[in-house]
Write a structure and sequence with these properties.
alpha/beta; Rossmann fold; 6-stranded mixed β-sheet; 5-stranded parallel β-sheet; globular
C-alpha cells in the first residue's frame, strides 16, 4: 500500500519510507492511500477470536502487501503478549484497561508493534545506516518506546523530556535504562521537546549519516496499531452482551492525547467496525477542537500532530465529523472528584486520564447505547494526585518499583537545537 501526505495526496511514500521519514516533504503526515473494508465474515467470528488473532487480520488488511504473513504474525504475537481486560463499571459502562503491558500504559501496544516493524523494515533498507528514533514525551510514550526498542540491534532511541515537569516515578522507566536508550532532559517545556524533534527530522545533514525517525504517533508505525484495541473492545462486548445489544450501539471514549487514538478509531469505523460514536475527552483549556461546537478546528503549522490526520479524515467538513465525534473538557477539580467518587462507589481506582474518558462517556451516553472507555495508564503513574483524591495508598507494581532503584542516566541539554544535534552527531 502507498501512503500520502495529509497536505497533498499526490505526495506518496511506501511503508518503509513513511516509517523511516514520518514527515512528508511538504510537512504533512502520512495516511493510507485507501482504507479497505474488512470482510463481514471476520465480524461474524469476532467474539470468539483472541487479541493476536484480531490484530493479525486487521494488520494484514493494511500491511499485507508489505509484510509476509509469517513475519506479520511474529510482530503481532510480540505486540499482544499481555492481557487487556474489559470490566463492567456501571450499567452500560465498561472500562478497557490498556495498562497491563511492561510500562503500564496504552503506548505499549503501538510501541511494541513499531519496534518489530522497524526491525523487519531495517533488513530491507538499501544503506546499512544506524536508525535513530527520537521521542518527545511527558512520560508514557518515552517509557514504552524505550522498553520496546531496548537492545534492538542497529537502533538507538533518544527520549526527550522536559526538566522538572514529570515525576521521578514515571521518568525512572526510561532514565534508568542504558545500552541503546539515551534519555535527554531538556531545560524547557514539552513543546520545546517537540520542536527539537521536528528540527532533527528535517535535518538533511543528520539524514546523510543516519536514518532519523520519530517514535511519537506522527509515525504511521505508531499511529495505525492504535486501532487494534478498538476491534478488541468490540469483540469482547459482543462476547459479553451479544450482537443485538452491541451492533451500532457502542460508544467509544478516549482521553484526548495527541488524537492518534481518535483518528485510528475513525479509520477502524471506516474499515467496517460498527461502532456508533466516538468521544474525545480533554482537560479544560486544551487546544483541541471541540466537535460538539465549543471550539474551532485549527491546525498549528509549527507543530506536527494528529490534528492534520483528523482534518484529512473529515475532508475539512466539520458537519460530517460531528455525526460520529464529540468532545468534552473537564477541569482538574472535576477529574479529582470523579476519581474519589468512583473509588468510593465502585472500589475502582483510576488515573486522571481514565477519569477524563469516563466523564466524556457519562456526558454523552444515551438510551440503549453501550459505552466503553479507555483506561490508558495505571493510577500509579499519577501516584500523588490519585492518593490525595482517594485517601488511601495505591499499590506500586513491580514494573515501577524495580526501576526506581536504578541510576538516572539522562543527558542534560538546553532547549536549543545546536545542543541536541551535537549530541546526536557526537554523543557529547
Amino acid at each position: 500500500m502507498k501512503y500520502h501526505s495529509t497536505n497533498n495526496p499526490l505526495i506518496e511514500a511506501t511503508l518503509q519510507q513513511a516509517v523511516f521519514a514520518p514527515l512528508a516533504n511538504d510537512g504533512g503526515l502520512y495516511m493510507p492511500d485507501n482504507l479497505p473494508k474488512i470482510p463481514k465474515a471476520f465480524f461474524n467470528n469476532l467474539s470468539a477470536m483472541t487479541m493476536p488473532e484480531i490484530g493479525y487480520v486487521v494488520a494484514n488488511t493494511l500491511f499485507g502487501e508489505d509484510i509476509d504473513s509469517r513475519s506479520l504474525k511474529e510482530i503481532i504475537d510480540y505486540t499482544f503478549s499481555f492481557d487487556i481486560p474489559i470490566i463492567q463499571l456501571e450499567e452500560n459502562i465498561y472500562v478497557m484497561e490498556l495498562f497491563h503491558g511492561p510500562t503500564l500504559a496504552i503506548n505499549d501496544v503501538s510501541a511494541r508493534f513499531m519496534s518489530r516493524l522497524v526491525q523487519y523494515l531495517s533488513k530491507k533498507q538499501a544503506a546499512n545506516k544506524e536508525i535513530k528514533i527520537l521521542v518527545a514525551t511527558t512520560g508514557d510514550t518515552g517509557s514504552a518506546i524505550a522498553n520496546a526498542f531496548y537492545d534492538v540491534k542497529g537502533v538507538t532511541t533518544y527520549i526527550l523530556y522536559p526538566k522538572d515537569a514529570i515525576n521521578r516515578l514515571r521518568t525512572a522507566q526510561f532514565t534508568s535504562l542504558r545500552g541503546n536508550v539515551r534519555p535527554i532532559e531538556v531545560a524547557g517545556s514539552y513543546t520545546d521537546c517537540q520542536q527539537l524533534v521536528n528540527q532533527a527530522l528535517n535535518d538533511k545533514e543528520l539524514a546523510s549519516h543516519s536514518i532519523v525517525t520519530s517514535g511519537n504517533s506522527i509515525n504511521i508505525a505508531r499511529f495505525i496499531p492504535q486501532m487494534f484495541y478498538c476491534f478488541f473492545a468490540y469483540a469482547r462486548m459482543l462476547d459479553m452482551l451479544g450482537a443485538e445489544k452491541v451492533n451500532n450501539h457502542l460508544v467509544y471514549s478516549v482521553p484526548r492525547g495527541n488524537l492518534g487514538n481518535i483518528c485510528s478509531a475513525i479509520i477502524a469505523k471506516r474499515m467496517g467496525l460498527p461502532i456508533k460514536r466516538l468521544v474525545a475527552a480533554a482537560i479544560e483549556g486544551d487546544s483541541f477542537i471541540n466537535y460538539s461546537g465549543v471550539r474551532k478546528l485549527t491546525s498549528d503549522p509549527n507543530m506536527q500532530s494528529n490534528q492534520a490526520r483528523l482534518l484529512n479524515l473529515s475532508e475539512n467538513n466539520k458537519q460530517q465529523m460531528t455525526e460520529i465525534l464529540s468532545s468534552y473538557t473537564f477541569d482538574d477539580k472535576k477529574i479529582a472528584e470523579t476519581i474519589a467518587d468512583i473509588d468510593k462507589r465502585n472500589g475502582y481506582t483510576m488515573s486522571p486520564k481514565s477519569a477524563k474518558a469516563y466523564l466524556g462517556l457519562k456526558e454523552t451516553l444515551k438510551g440503549n447505547e453501550i459505552g466503553v472507555f479507555i483506561a490508558p495508564t495505571h493510577p500509579v503513574k499519577f501516584l500523588d494526585l490519585v492518593e490525595k483524591a482517594v485517601g488511601h495508598a495505591v499499590e506500586i507494581p513491580a514494573q515501577i518499583s524495580q526501576v526506581m532503584i536504578g541510576a538516572n542516566n539522562s543527558k542534560q541539554i538546553p532547549a536549543t537545537y545546536s545542543a541536541l544535534k551535537r549530541y546526536l552527531m557526537t554523543g557529547k
